[in-house]
Write a sequence for this structure.
């Protein structure tokens, strides 16, 4: 026969095991919920945007631009995030030629991003085309004139016929083709059209 003290001892051990299992399960649940909460915070674009605004208020445009760019990465279609990232980039003063080149490439990327995520926005297309044309005029490199022609063709395809800015696509395309004729042999020009 089992004595009463042994029964109490077994019951106490069972209670301790049950309490430990409940504590471990509760800890695991809280850990998972906490991890999900932290991941949500890290993935929240508005948090980065708010940090960007705070940095902008301190005139720390590099940090502001980084935060706006992170917000834009998390919410690529948000025009406000793109606008603020672009404004921050324009406020930066490069320390050397390489940094100036890097900032400029980022600005071109943002102009392209605007067209990609709002392809019916004729003003976005025109901003990109104008900048690509400026680059091509300065470099007179065939690849830059090709970029103008491609961007003009893209604008012509994306913008409805009634839009008053659409004719600019044809003008920029004609300028690009005319310059290509001047800087590239005829066989290459006919292949690019």
């Amino acid at each position: 026969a089992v004595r009463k003290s042994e029964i109490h001892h077994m019951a106490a051990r069972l209670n301790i095991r049950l309490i430990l299992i409940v504590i471990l399960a509760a800890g695991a649940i809280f850990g998972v919920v906490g991890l999900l909460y932290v991941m949500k915070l890290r993935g929240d674009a508005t948090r980065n945007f708010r940090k960007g605004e705070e940095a902008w208020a301190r005139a720390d445009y590099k940090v502001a631009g980084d935060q706006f760019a992170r917000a834009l990465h998390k919410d690529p279609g948000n025009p406000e995030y793109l606008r603020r990232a672009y404004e921050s980039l324009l406020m930066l003063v490069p320390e050397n030629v390489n940094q100036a080149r890097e900032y400029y490439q980022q600005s071109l990327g943002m102009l392209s991003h605007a067209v990609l995520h709002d392809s019916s926005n004729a003003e976005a297309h025109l901003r990109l085309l104008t900048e690509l044309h400026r680059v091509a005029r300065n470099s007179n490199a065939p690849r830059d004139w090709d970029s103008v022609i491609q961007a003009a063709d893209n604008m012509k395809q994306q913008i409805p016929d009634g839009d008053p800015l659409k004719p600019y696509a044809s003008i920029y395309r004609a300028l690009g083709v005319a310059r290509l004729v001047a800087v590239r042999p005829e066989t290459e020009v006919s292949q690019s059209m």
In short: The mean pLDDT is 87. The CA atoms of residues 149 and 173 lie 5 Å apart. DSSP finds nine helices and no strands in the chain. The longest helix spans residues 4-42.
